What does this fold into?
Amino acid sequence: MKKIIVSTDKLSKTYFTKEEDFMAVQDFSVDIYDKEFICIMGPCSCGKSAILKMIGGIEEPTGGAMKINGISCEKKFPLELRKKIGFMYQNENLLPWRTVEKNLRLPLEIFRDIDKNTPQRINDVLKMVGLADYKEVTPIELSGGMKQRVGIARAMVYDPDLVLMDQPFGKLDAITRKMLAFDFINIWQKTQKTFVMITNSVDEAILCSNRVIILSGCPAQVNKIVDINIPIEQRNAEIELLPEYQKIRKEIQSLVRS
Amino acid sequence: MKAKKGVHKKKQKNILAPLVVLGIILVVWEASTRLFNIPRTIFPPISSIIIQTIDNFAVNIWSHVLVTIRTVLLGMVIAIPLGVLLAAVFSQFKVLRYGMTPIVLILVVTPMITLVPLFMLWMGFDYGPRFIVVVVQCTPIILLNTLTGFCQTSSKYLELMKGYGSSKLKTFVKVVFPNALPQVFTGIKLGCIFSTIATTSIEMVAGQPGLGYRVTYFSGQIQTELVFGCIICIASIGLLLYTLISIIEKRVVTWIQ
It folds into this structure.
């Protein structure tokens, strides 16, 4: 029996504003297993980020229950859990006054996880995303793709078990997207972590993940969960030639459009 | 990385252009005062201002320059940390922030020169405590700008720190404060301007010593060249202080272009 990392039960999120109450997420019930690569897709951008942020302990759910690693966390999010979850923001969210290296140090400083191995850890994770030479550079000197990669590195520098990514390729051009998508699969394979990624690209979702959660419109609810039964060896540049690929693609596209 | 040649050219233009304008002003000043035979008691030519000021400098002016500088610097050295500290405290308590802002605003807009007679009543004519007036005039403006900086931290940075379960103190030190530095420096630069105004105001009203006092003194003596000379000294002090802060700002605030 595979281990369940994240288990949500009727998770919901309502935003209370002066004008009206806005329900972004409704009855989100999903189990995410260890070492999975999950993609979340859906129409408007209202509910998807909220779901990821609830799982990441960045926003509090207004209803429902949630367990991560078996620990109940819908009311209070334990610090120990935060150290096991890495979050990558849609807008990369780097601190502009810190160099790349210092940006990576930030979570380690807060978790008090600094020791003599820290510089090596930072070097290793930067090498993994291909930015080993950019330690002393500030975000303002980086391109959009590089900033996203720093974001990934920062999400993984403290070796979390669960990596959450909110549209990591959102601001990138098609070529960089493809390149990073392949990088992601490699990193996932190598590190054996659980990845949950929000994306708006059907091709990326099929390429990277083993299951795709498709949400309906606002408020976001689970429409269908599609299994991607393509073995890892075939997830390469020729994946689109597979008939299985085209079949799944049609299915997901029709679901997303509805 | 950067096109070095382009930056060099820009720096040259930045220094050259003001110098050229200054040169033109000085030439026009000298020429018109001589040409139109304007009496030296009303508007002396720049050459005689410079000569007279240098002649009288050591004896009649230098000691007052030092007094003015002392008041300005002492006032600023206290006003800057005080303003920043108070802003840090106010930013944590909404009640304080909303309650105190109107009072701080009143202190900013009230010219200290109107309060100098009161200060003299409380502290006497001696020049020792005069820096207190500078502190009272400058702290509010530094406080106001810094407070705005602290309270306008981008929500995405706060979200980032919340995700790490950061304490309020850590968030303040690592994110809120560095993020506010541009506004802190704006406040300090405004404080510099206010400090010379406040110092000169006190000196003109309360009397010796100080450059402000010397301006009224030389006016009374109809030594207009020296009046101008003292004004130029005061302006130079203000300019030097402002430039110093700007240089520090360029070194510290590197992420805004």
Remarks:
- Residues 57 and 82 of chain A are 7 Å apart (CA to CA).
